[in-house]
Amino acid sequence: MTITDPVTILSIILCILVAILYYGCSRNHCRNHCHNLPPGPTPLPIIGNIHILNFKRPYETLHQLSKKYGPVYSIQIGEEKMVVLAGYETVKDALVNHADTFSERAIVPLYDEIMMGHGVIFAHDENWRVMRRFTLSTLRNFGMGTETTENKIKDESDFLVKKINTYEGKPFDNTDIINGAFSNIIVSILLSHRFDYDDPTLLRLMKIFCDNVKLVGSPMAMLYNAFPSVLSWFPGIQKTLANNRDDIFQFVRETFTAQKKQLDVNDQRNLIDRFLVKQQEEKPNPKLYFTNENLLALVMDLFAAGMETTSTTLRWGLLLMMKYPEIQRKVQNEIDKVIGTSAPQATHRKEMPYTDAVIHEIQRYGNIVPANLPHATTQDVTFRGYFIPKGTYIIPLLTSVLYDKDHFEKPEVFYPEHFLDAGGNFVKNEAFMPFSAGKRSCAGENLAKMELFMFFTKLLQNFTFQAPPGATLDLTPTAFVICTPMSHMMCAVPRI
User: Fold this and answer.
1) Which of 149, 281, 437, 482 could form a disulfide with 95 if both were Cys (CB 3.0 to 4.6 A apart)?
2) What is the DSSP string of 154-193?
3) With 0-12 CB in 10 A as exposed, 13-18 as middle and 19+ as buried, what is 429?
4) pLDDT at 27 exceeding the cut of 60
5) In Å, how far from its chain's centre is CA 441?
């Protein structure tokens, strides 16, 4: 019999853990009696504070607790004592002013078992530093944020418009084609390739990544990470994620094996070529970083990051334009005035303050990665008056930054004026932090900004987006680690 209901599983866990109560209590006693830890809700034996979390949207519980316990507080989830950082000033202080101290990635059992410390997102120590330097330099070398990348985005936006036109204004779900468009940008950098939106390989890869996002944000994943020593006896979710990883790795392995045969050191075409060259250069070094394992994980990391967050942001943008047609019309009027029927270019952004403000507000309101990815301290630190031990699991709560009432006039409302002055000029807001900050900030930030502006303006230049007749538009996000819009249909009515 397969047990999947989270409540049933939690009941089983509680029964099992009574038998090992002495272990949990002794560990909790040690951790809870460190001097001057941040305050927080009193944990129960074994389960800690897991019983007070909103399992669908735990970041909402964490945000509410910060209003009671302050911007630096402790919470215990199962075996793990965590420190939550809330509000712009606190998160910036940690990630920017104390960048080195808060730069480690927390040990998340499920992620570590799947990725084994390889790649860049969930890597640690020197391996992370080497992979991040390589990623940043390679993205720059292959034109991230330059005219080279701009041309790729321009071409892909043409393909996307052509695809949307085939629906002839009738209702359709935009998930796969928008995921496909953004996937093709990152695939061009990784593999020098482009897929048709109906290509079975692309559809399979996107489905795996989307399934993984749902799995790692599920209540079962939360329970697994809270009680890894017990739930290793119930390996269902870990096995599914491992199988999905292996499918992706097989595709990547076949790709770089083929590229190895054609590798030309003097003509490096993409990230995989450059990695293979670094691999050859590194061979005499006993401390190897450019291994096949790191290459597999790095490509998987970049594909996921390059597709999921940016495509989700654009999907939020189109949904919000349907919800607020008056804002959509203002954007279209600015597009008509500045761009007309010409192809959007990255340089147009400076001439389009309202559109720029709307895109920023989509990112803020969409709150794509609300709990951020978990950090950890690299050393003992006294931060804002509290002692935080080395290796502590840190949650820099991005939702508390993007919805900070001290920096956004109407944080719960979609309000582009958050980024406009009284004269209609675009103004930066220091609390705009959708890409996180510090040494673990998004490596593809500049690429994402260019993609969002060019895709968004291209689509609104060509279409007016509307809800199907009789449909109700729901802005409630899904309950995953990435806040995606609920499944919905839309109509794209041609303008030209």
Assistant:
1) 437
2) HHHHHHHHHHHHTTTT--B--HHHHHHHHHHHHHHHHHS-
3) middle
4) no
5) 11
Distance of CA 468 to the CA centre of its chain: 29
- Residue 124 near residue 105, CB atoms below 8 Å: yes
Ramachandran category for residue 60: left, alpha or beta (phi over 0 → left; psi -120 to 50 → alpha): alpha
Q: How far is CA 50 from CA 31, 65, 75, 77, 208, in A?
A: 17, 13, 9, 5, 29
Answer whether 394's CB lies under 8 Å from 71's CB: no
Percent of the chain with pLDDT over 70: 91
CA-to-CA distance for 186 and 28, rounded, in angstroms? 44
Q: What distance in Å separates the CA atoms of residue 83 and residue 440, rounded to the nearest whole number? A: 17
DSSP annotation of 419 reads: G
> Within 10 A of 232 (CB to CB), how many other CB atoms are there?
12
Instruction: Label residues 282-301 b or e (16+ Cβ within 10 Å = b).
Output: eeeeeeebbebebbbbbbbb
**Region at 16 (left for phi over 0; alpha for psi -120 to 50; beta for the rest):** alpha
Beta-bridge mates of residue 381: 388
**339 contacts: CB under 8 Å, gap ≥ 6:** 348, 457, 461
Contact 426, 417 (CB under 8 A): no
pLDDT in tens, 314-333: 999 999 999 999 999 999 99
Give pTM, 2 decimals.
0.91
Residue with tokens 């050191």: 265
Alpha-carbon torsion (150, 151, 155, 158), positive or negative: positive
Yes or no: say if 94 and 76 are a contact pair by the CB < 8 Å rule: no
Contact partners, residue 428, CB within 8 Å, separation at least 6: 419
Looking at this protein, which amino acid is placed at residue 350?
Answer: K
